[in-house]
Amino acid sequence: MDFFEVKEMIANLGLLIVDEVPEEELVVIEDESRGIKGMIVDCEDEMVIIEQPIGRFSEKYYGWFLEKSRYLTFGAFVLDGESKTIFFRNTLRLDTLDLEEFESTIHSLEIFLAEYGDEIIKMAKDN
Known about the structure:
Elements: H1 3-12, E1 16-21, E2 26-31, E3 36-44, E4 47-56, H2 62-69, E5 76-80, E6 85-93, H3 99-125
Antiparallel strand pairs: 1-2, 2-3, 3-4, 4-6, 5-6
């Protein structure tokens, strides 16, 4: 699997590439109907890193995201210590990546946002 095949998978899933940095093998994708906005797909050597910024939250909510990571089918929530931004992140092997595995990552976040989106919006307003 290579960067061009990853881009083909993105297109096959109906996701829109809104930005691209070909020399870094990185794209930014969106599908607002699924809650995907500014998702970064970065092909790094043998890995593909998928990150969706969730937002900046008060420190009092960090534990909530850590607890909820347990219920994600794929991926986890992570904190960027520098920007204090919470991200959904999944790292996959590029050489064995297939459409179903990539799609499962998207669905994991999509299902989570459908279930907890209102709660996340309330927490984001509490900054």
